[in-house]
Amino acid sequence: MRGPRRPKSGGGRLEQVLSEAQRDREKRAAGYRDRALKIYPPICARCGREFSGIRLRELTVHHKDHNHDNNPPDGSNWELLCIYCHDMEHQRYVDDEGNEYEPQADERDSYSTYRPFAALKDLLKDKK
To answer: How many domains, the chain?
Structure first.
């Protein structure tokens, strides 16, 4: 069985450019990941799970402003998230892109905006 056909001319150059880009990306990612792991404790900033040993690879660096080129030396644009919380954060960002809703200051830093006991005080007043 034969594999996919490669273009006869220019294919080598394209592969070279792609491999260089991939190498540069991995190098850049390794640099800020190592720095973030030195600055922050190995704990997910969202769910609070702690990571160590081989499980440390499940902890990722999330860029708060979603710009992977914004890597200040003090790590102020980073937070460590587990792979699950990181995926959820990016999905939330994608979902919110088309919305005009702007969360309030207290909602921006909150993991969930749902407040189950918000009306409890009023409900208890009615019972008296």
So the answer is: 1
Quickly count: other Cβ atoms within 10 Å of residue 22's Cβ: 10
Q: How confident is the model at residue 106 (pLDDT cuts 50, 70, 90)?
A: low
Extract the tokens encoding 67. 């710009």
| The two structure tokens encoding residue 11 | 């294919």
42: exposed, middle or buried (Cβ count in 10 Å: 0-12, 13-18, 19+): middle
User: Is the full-model pTM beyond 0.85?
Assistant: no
CATH of the domain at 22: 3.40.1800
Q: What is the CA radius of gyration of the chain?
A: 22
- Looking at this protein, which amino acid is placed at residue 113? T
Q: Identify the residue whose tokens are 């080598």.
A: 12
Domain range for 47: 16-96
Q: What pLDDT, in 10s, does the model give residues 11-53?
A: 688 899 999 888 887 776 668 888 888 899 999 999 999 999 9
